[in-house]
């Protein structure tokens, strides 16, 4: 299975941008990069996903390295509600999605 | 509601008891996933269905765990002869097509084995 490596925890100040890194050096050509987050006592929530090109949506941006061995989730202005565990996951078409330990993001007011 | 629904939300089982956990995915969603999440850990993959076909069950921890989705919609995760180490939150997710479309998660079922 392709694996991802993320820092255990990160801190951010409210209303500042946050860059959450993910390394996936064993990624294959068909693996998509997914990001989910999990707020306390809730199920995971989809954030964004991409294959090769950078992606933007209303929640975040996903910057994918040219060699695809790493990616960065960008929250443009962190709010207290963004405090959660963020998971970077590799997924192949018609295959399962396996979570790692994720990065616990703390947002300070 | 339009989301993934899981029932019961909470279940307390005596050790050795059998339990059945239900997942109602979003209507029309092809893919369905089950995960087990222990306290303070990330979700651990259990099994994956595409319609009624169970394509991957490699994450099921033992033969006491069994999942089915007979008509390609509702799914049931059954745990036989529950043990204390089965205590966890069991999460279900569904997605419209394959695993590379957005997956929607339910709130989970918290199972406590006493």
What does this protein look like?
- The complex is a heterodimer of chains A (109) and B (114).
- In chain A, 0% of the residues lie in helices and 46% in strands.
- By secondary structure, chain A is an all-beta fold.
- Chain A has a 5-stranded mixed beta sheet with strand order 1-9-8-3-4, with no helix packed on it.
- Chain A is globular, with a radius of gyration of 13 Å.
- Chain A starts with 8 loop residues before the first strand and ends with a strand.
- By secondary structure, chain B is an all-beta fold.
- Chain B is 0% helix and 49% strand.
- Chain B has strands spanning 5-7, 10-13, 19-24, 31-37, 44-50, 53-56, 65-68, 75-79, 88-95, 103-105, 109-113.
- In chain B, strands 2, 4, 5, 6, 9, 10 and 11 form a 7-stranded mixed beta sheet that branches. Chain B has a 4-stranded antiparallel beta sheet with strand order 1-3-8-7, with no helix packed on it.
- In chain B, a hairpin with a 6-residue loop joins strand 4 (31-37) and strand 5 (44-50).
- Chain B is globular.
- The N and C termini of chain B lie far apart (32 Å).
Q: What would you call the quaternary organization?
A: heterodimer
Distance between the termini of chain A: 39 Å
Order of helices and strands of chain A: EEEEEEEEE
Tell me what portion of residues of chain B adopts beta-strand conformation: over 45%
Helix content of chain B: under 10%
Features:
heterodimer, A: 109 residues, mainly beta, five-stranded mixed sheet, globular, B: 114 residues, seven-stranded mixed sheet, four-stranded antiparallel sheet, 0% helix
Topology (elements, then pairings):
The complex is a heterodimer of chains A (109) and B (114).
Chain A: E1 9-13, E2 18-23, E3 32-38, E4 45-50, E5 55-56, E6 61-64, E7 70-75, E8 84-91, E9 103-108
Parallel strand pairs in A: 1-9
Antiparallel strand pairs in A: 2-7, 3-4, 3-8, 5-6, 6-7, 8-9
Chain B: E1 5-7, E2 10-13, E3 19-24, E4 31-37, E5 44-50, E6 53-56, E7 65-68, E8 75-79, E9 88-95, E10 103-105, E11 109-113
Parallel strand pairs in B: 2-11
Antiparallel strand pairs in B: 1-3, 3-8, 4-5, 4-9, 5-6, 7-8, 9-10, 9-11
């Amino acid at each position: 299975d392709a694996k991802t490596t993320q820092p255990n925890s990160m801190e951010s100040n409210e209303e500042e941008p946050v860059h959450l890194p993910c390394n996936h050096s064993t990624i294959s050509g068909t693996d998509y990069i997914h990001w989910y987050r999990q707020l306390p006592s809730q199920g995971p929530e989809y954030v964004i996903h991409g294959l090769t090109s950078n992606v933007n949506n209303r929640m975040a941006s996903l910057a994918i390295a040219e060699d695809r061995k790493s990616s960065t989730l960008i929250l443009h202005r962190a709010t207290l509600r963004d405090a959660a565990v963020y998971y970077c996951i590799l997924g192949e078409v018609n295959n399962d999605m396996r979570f790692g330990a994720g990065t616990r993001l703390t947002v300070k007011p | 509601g339009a989301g993934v629904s899981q029932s019961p939300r909470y279940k307390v089982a005596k050790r050795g008891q059998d339990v059945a956990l239900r997942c109602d995915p979003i209507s029309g969603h092809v893919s369905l996933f089950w995960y087990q999440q222990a306290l303070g850990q990330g979700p651990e993959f259990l099994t994956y269905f595409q319609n009624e076909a169970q394509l991957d069950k490699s994450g099921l921890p033992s033969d006491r765990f069994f999942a089915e989705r007979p008509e390609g919609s509702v799914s049931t995760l059954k745990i036989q002869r529950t043990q204390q180490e089965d205590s966890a939150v069991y999460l279900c997710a569904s997605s419209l097509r394959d695993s590379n479309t957005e997956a929607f998660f339910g709130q989970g079922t918290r199972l406590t084995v006493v």
